[in-house]
Design goal:
Layout (H helix, E strand, L loop, with lengths): L5 E8 L7 E6 L2 H13 L4 E10 L4 E11 L7 H6 L13 H10 L1 H7 L3 H6 L1 H10 L1 H18 L3 H25 L10 H8 L5 H13 L5 H13 L5 H19 L2 H8 L5 H12 L1 H10 L1 H6 L5 H10 L5 H16 L9 H17 L7 H15 L2 H8 L5 H13 L4 H15 L2 H9 L4 H17 L4 H22 L1 H6 L5 H12 L8 H14 L2 H8 L2 H13 L1
Helix pairs in contact: 6-8, 7-8, 9-10, 9-12, 10-12, 11-12, 11-17, 12-18, 14-15, 14-18, 14-19, 18-20, 19-20, 22-23, 22-25, 23-26, 24-26, 25-26, 28-29
Amino acid sequence: MSAGQIHFEVFARRNQNGSLALEMATEDRARAMAYAEELLEGGSCAVRVSKEVLNEETGEYSSVTILAKGVAAPKKSKAEFEDAGPPCVAPADLYTVHARQRIVRLLDGWLGRNKVIPFELLHRPDLAEKLEASGTDLQHAVQKIAIPEAQAKGVSVHEVIRSFNGLIERAIERLIKDGRKGSLANFKNEPFAVACARLMEEPEAAYRLGGGVAAYLADAKSWADKIDRLMDLADQAPTDPRPRALAFDVLEQPLGEILGSKAGVAELLGPDLDLGGSLAALTRLAAGQSVDMLSKFDPTIGRVMPPLEGAAKRLSHWMEGSHFQAVRMAIGKRVIAEIKSSRRLRPGDPNAEIDILRALAMALTAAAGKMLSAEDIREAFIERSSMLISAEFVTAAVNGTSTAHEEVRALLRLAENVTGAGNKSQAAQWLIGAVTALRFEREMRSSGEPPMNRLAILADLQRAISRVDLPEADRTAISKRLGDIGGLVEGDANVVASMTRSALAPVQVLTHLLKMALGETAPAGPATARAKEAALKLGKSPDIRADLANAPEVIEKLRPLMMAS
């Protein structure tokens, strides 16, 4: 079969009582299957993917279901079918946000091949004529929407097809007629600002101005070029509040559609970005000021969030103002949806994934209110955190470690960057498992590292644990285990006894004992207790009193221990 005779349709039911609705039509089987899985992960109750094959003799499509997942829908009564109204009944209805989103799904292939968005199709007579002349694409789109609509309404498919065909014919006829009459704005004849002011009082001002905007984008060679042209028009917008509001209401529609498409975003931000890089770039695009501010205090944020260039950088400046709020919100929802999904942000590099997730959390939180609510952000990162403490991710995170204590450090870093009480508790369990493992104890007691080095490692881990927000009981248990192992290490090597018998000057010995006793070079526990006891004994010795008189810093450390004893 020739290309275009087979395509795949993705249907989804968003809630238990709803009907399956068409979400996407594409010629790419893998894309259809992946999108169905994304819909399920995103909260849809059920999905179905069908393979549609065109019969060239009859002009009709035969359908074969290749994937069906989810919960079966409850049966609906006839009355429920009769209550559902048609989504579009007049040409003007095709210009609503909901209708434009449906057009994307129905005409995904045709729009992609012509590198246009629904806004352009609905406002350019030449594109409307081109779609009408294509025959198969338009007929196929009508059939795709007619079948679920007929099922929902309880009427015949042919009746719905006739209704939609009539609506489309009227819409195309109207657009072509307005184009010939010169009713649509033309920025070759009048500046954008003048057109906004002239059309301000007309009932179809947005439609007529949109015609001019679509024509202005017509010969753009790329998505980035189209965004540049939209920014050109934004620069030319009138200063008077009312026509200025009209200008930005119209410009926001094509801008939102370009940024809502994967191809548009990939071309604007860079095709080589992984998911984490794409989300970081989108966040910088919509909340550039917050990212720049945070980068001054934490340079790692600036490093992991890619800089914007060209049209993207220009757009980010506009996004800092009061305009394009709907676009900012849409970007925020898209970022949050991906964060809540199970897709890896940095496949193959768990440490880099933690870095990008931390940067996103800080940037989105700083921009809360502009893009999303603080509650939505918190819930999304709690959900993502549950993936970070899964067995699969934890295994990947510790896979690159070569020693037991490096594994504990990796788990500590993981625990620092998860949120939510349940996730914190699970992270603590991974840590408890690591520090109580025989491998960790054996390495600390018998590795080639000098005993003082091993005690310092344990002390550092213990301090790090105290800084992580974990359940108090778990944090105490982990800290105690580190202290107990420190006691074993000290006992195996007789560190305190060897130190007191060394050839060092008494005040130097006391200094080392005090560092151990205060938890600087040994973990709090038996080792620090033995060091404290030896330090107090040495500090009371008559032989050291003269030296202590010349070492006030040692006295300052010794005094609290003597007072507490």
